[in-house]
Amino acid sequence: MKTTDIHWPTKHDVAVFLEFIELRTKIASFFPMMLGFFWTIYHYHELNLGNAILFFVAGTIFDMCVTAINNTMDYHKALDDTYRSDENVIGRENLNFKQMVKIVLGLFMTAFILSLILVWRTDLMLLVLGGIMYVIGISYTFGPFPISRTPFGEFFSSMTMGFGIFYTAVFVTRYPTLLSSQLSMERLVIQFDWLETLKLFIMALPEVILIANIMLANNTRDLDTDIKNERYTLVYYIGRSNALLMYQAFSILPWLFWIGFGITGILPRWSLVMLLAAIPHYFLVRRYTQYVGQKRAFPEATKAYTLFCSVYLLTLILAVIFR
C-alpha cells in the first residue's frame, strides 16, 4: 500500500471523535481524580505516582467508553427521527454504526487491560471496586433497562464519579491500610478502614452533589427530547420547576460543606477565604435559572461545577505547597 493510500485522520475526523466521546464532559471524572490525588498528598503525605498515572489513563479512557456507549445506544434506540438524524453525532455526521461499535469495544478493552495491570500493582479488592464501577458505567446506557432512562441516573452517576473515582484515586496509594485482602487456600481476610472511608465520603460529598447537579441540568435541558425517545429521567417525574429548585439547593450545599471543612480544620483555616468564589458561583447559578429549559443553560451549570472544583483543587495544591 502506498503512503498516499493511507487515510490519515483529518481535523474534522478528530473533532467528530472528540464529540463522539464528548471530551468536554470529562471534567466530571478529571476533578474527582485530581482531588483524590492531592488529598492523598495533603492528608497522608504520600502518592504512588505510577499507580496514579495508570489510574488516570484507565479512568479517562473508560469515561470516554461510557460516553461513546451512551451516544451509540441513544442512536440505536432513538424513536424520534429528528434526534436520530440531526442531533445525535452518529446520524448527523453519517458515521458507520459498526465502526462506532468497534471504537467502543477498543476503548473498553484498553481501559480493562490497564485496570487489570493496576489490580496486579495494588490489591485484589480493586477488582471488586472497579467491577462495581464498570457494571454501573456500562449499565448506565446499555442493557434492557439502562439507568440513564430511569429516575436514578443522577444518584448512580454522582456516587460512582463523585465518590467512587475520588475513593479509588486515594486507594491506589493507600490500599494497604484503606482496603486490602489476604488470600490463602483456607480463607480470605479483608481489612477495611470504615472510619477513614467515611471521612473520604464526607470529603467527596461536594463532588457528589455537584455531579448530580450536572446530570440534573443535562436532563432538564433534554426533557422534551427524552420523552420523545422514552427516556423517563428524574426531571420527567418531578417537573422542570422542581428540578430547578433542586438544582439551586444542590448549588448551596457544597459551600456549606466547605465552611464545615474550614471550621473543623479538615482543610486549613485560610481555606475559608475561598468562600469569595461563592459570589461568581451565585451568578452562574442565577444565569442557569434564567436560561433553564434552553440549550444555553447547560454551559452555565458546567461552569458552576468547574468553578467550585477548581477552588477545591487549588486549595489542596496550596495546602500541599505551604503546609
Description:
The chain has 13 helices and two strands. A hairpin with a 4-residue loop joins strand 1 and strand 2. Helix content is 74%, strand content 3%. The longest helix has 31 residues. The protein has 323 residues and is mainly alpha-helical. Helix 7 packs antiparallel against helix 8, helix 8 runs antiparallel to helix 9 and helix 9 packs across helix 11.
Gyration radius (Cα, Å) is 21 Å
- Morphology: globular
**SSE string:** HHHHHHHHEEHHHHH
The tally of helices reads 13
What percent of residues are in strands?
under 5%
Tally the beta strands: 2
Sequence of strands across the biggest β-sheet: 1-2
Percent in helix: over 70%
Q: Which stretches of 5+ consecutive residues score pLDDT under 50? A: 1-5
SS-derived structural category: mainly alpha
* Distance N to C terminus: 60 Å
Mean pLDDT: 88
Largest sheet: 2 strands, antiparallel
Concise account of the structure shown:
By secondary structure, the protein is mostly helical. The protein contains 13 helices and two strands; from the N terminus they run H-H-H-H-H-H-H-H-E-E-H-H-H-H-H.
What are the SSEs and their pairings?
Blueprint: H1 11-20, H2 27-44, H3 49-77, H4 81-87, H5 89-92, H6 97-121, H7 125-139, H8 153-178, E1 179-183, E2 188-192, H9 194-221, H10 223-228, H11 234-264, H12 278-291, H13 297-322
Antiparallel strand pairs: 1-2
Offer a few descriptive terms.
323 residues
